[in-house]
Amino acid sequence: MVNELHPSDKKFPKTLSSLMLYFLKPYTFLIWVGILCSMASGLYGVVNSNLLKLIIDSLERVPSSNNIASAVFWPALFFIINFEIHNLSWRGIGYINKKIQPYIKNKVIRETFSYVISHSHQFFQENLSGKISNNINILANNMEESIHDISPHIIRGAVLLIGALISMYFVRPIFFYGFAVWAFFFFLISWLFSKKIVRLADTYAESESLVSGQLVDSVSNSQNIRLFSRSAYESSYILKALEIMKNKFQQKQWFLIKLHLIQGFSQTLMLSFMMYTLIRLRTLGLVTIGDFALILGLSIEVGFTIWYVTEQIDNLNNAVGKCNQSIRSLFKSVGIQDQPNATPLHITKGEIIFDNVTFHYREAIPLFQNLSVTIEGGSKVGLVGYSGCGKTTFANLILRLFDINEGKILIDKQIVKVITQDSLRNAVGMIPQDPSLYHRSLTDNIRYGCLDATDEAVIEAAKRAHAHEFISKLPEGYDSLVGERGIKLSGGQRQRIAIARATLKNAPILILDEATSQLDSVTESLIQESLWEIMKGKTSLVIAHRLSTLLHMDRILVFENGKIVEDGTHHELLKKEGLYKTLWEAQVGGFLPNKPL
Ligand SMILES: Nc1ncnc2c1ncn2[C@@H]1O[C@H](COP(=O)(O)OP(=O)(O)O)[C@@H](O)[C@H]1O
Ligand SMILES: [Mg+2]
């Protein structure tokens, strides 16, 4: 973990080049060795052609067949040694890749993950989870590919080109000028077109990401597909995105074909020039047969290498396009961050104050406007109201899952916005409306509330949440895996695991958001007793699904359209003949109606 930037650190690199530098920095030495190996392999082609020239020229010069061996001995020996150097340099690159590749990939995934996970609640509500994880993988894979597979070829090509130019100069400057002019135009064309290629690769990557996002959305809603027999509809729904992806791919490929045609033709022109000049100079006796072999050999070798390199540049552009696309979607600003001077929350009584709080999701009409309420430390407060009146939002604001627009929220006189988020969330145990579980064992899921809890403590918490009974009946008991988000459990079972988890957490403030809504009334009343136990000595907010669970609360806050319209105990509120009374009387079998009657 040394040398790692904290997600909230403003210095966290957010462009591809700074990310690359950041991730490569610890391996600077090995990267330089890799660059040297790539350069050595580029030199191989140049040295090879020059040795060939020397061998041919020596053969041409030696008068008798007896002297051949001594005439070509050194160039022949170096010819072989040169090949071995080439072999070793590529193996060197392979060795360096083996050494650092997995570390870099792991580091990219780990740090990108911890950055992304620090995004605000809203980010995850607005982005599909499959798309997010896909983008992390795309970033890691393409950064890895650019570094390990593509760059060595580009470095090798560059060295080969420079070496070839120098060799040609020493044969006859005309070859140098001819080749340099060709190379200049070749790269100029490639460079002029590269911006467009990056753009095309970028939009193609975007369309790929759209397809994978839709696939994830469909797969995660597979239950709906079955319930509504919509498999045909779902497969046609994705057609539009697939069509866009196909078009983007074809646009990109068509552009590449045109570019390669131009590049290929320029190469034909260059070879024609070389051939013509060689023949003319040979006629004048100005070049040797060895020069002939050298110039043609280099032109072909460099020509092919540049072909390959431009393909690698295309791949690099593709990879850069994909990385940029991922970076754009992952590295948005984190949203809610700890302030630089944030201090940990220090709980004394557990008092919560909303002081003139105004809050809206997006720019729409405010949900809460100048809302003020004080919840005394250690008190048990029920929140009731029709669905959509803002109860869950009220709880989420205490946890600072969203930042408020105006006013202050204080816990024990400390402003929620200026304390660290970790300390705040450690102090609050929340059982959300629809708890989700990890696809891990039940023990791990319960232990999430307190990572160093013993197995006995986990079982004790499960007993208090009345989860032990059903867990014991599972074939694998506490080791059972519960499926994605806990899908293999019933809603009520999931809620009981969430209660057990919160019990273990044992935080001084407890928020139950319809925590028992999916339980039958018998189990609910059993759990109610445990919940009373758990709430002892804590500030507790209970968002109720059944008003009967609130009878013994110290106080009940009645919400209507983001306002607290009534405030008092059950008996006081019943006397008021207001909304609470309406709700109480409207309860059928103890349940709240969903909307005004
Ligand atoms: N993430 C969100 N983005 C935009 N609007 C939201 C979001 N969450 C809730 N809302 C809206 O805010 C209002 C209050 O929601 P909520 O607090 O969940 O109500 P309750 O828990 O009382 O049923 C609703 O109109 C709901 O549609
Ligand atoms: Mg709610």
Kindly list the characteristics that best describe this protein.
597 residues, alpha/beta, ABC transporter transmembrane region fold, Rossmann fold, 2 domains, six-stranded mixed beta sheet, four-stranded antiparallel beta sheet, elongated, binds adenosine-5'-diphosphate, binds magnesium ion
Chain-wise SSE layout:
Elements: H1 16-24, H2 28-61, H3 68-116, H4 121-126, H5 129-171, H6 173-220, H7 222-227, H8 231-237, H9 239-283, H10 289-330, E1 352-359, E2 368-375, E3 380-384, H11 391-398, E4 406-411, E5 414-415, H12 421-427, E6 428-431, H13 442-447, H14 455-464, H15 468-473, H16 491-505, E7 509-513, H17 521-535, E8 539-543, E9 555-560, E10 563-568, H18 570-575, H19 579-586
Parallel strand pairs: 3-8, 3-9, 6-7, 7-8
Antiparallel strand pairs: 1-2, 1-4, 4-5, 9-10
Helix pairs in contact: 2-3, 2-5, 2-10, 3-5, 5-6, 5-10, 6-9, 6-10, 9-10, 14-16
Average pLDDT for all residues? 87
Number of domains: 2
As for the CATH topology of the largest domain, it is ABC transporter transmembrane region fold
Instruction: Measure the end-to-end span.
Output: 58 Å
Secondary-structure element order, N to C: HHHHHHHHHHEEEHEEHEHHHHEHEEEHH
Instruction: Decide which structural class fits the backbone.
Output: alpha/beta
Could you name the CATH class of the largest domain? Mainly Alpha
Which strand-content bin applies to the residues? 5-15%
Low-confidence sequence ranges: 1-8
Small molecules (ligands, ions, cofactors) in the structure: adenosine-5'-diphosphate, magnesium ion
Report the helical percentage.
55-70%
The major β-sheet equals: 6 strands, mixed
CATH architecture label of the largest domain: Up-down Bundle
Strand order of the largest sheet: 6-7-8-3-9-10
Overall number of strands: 10
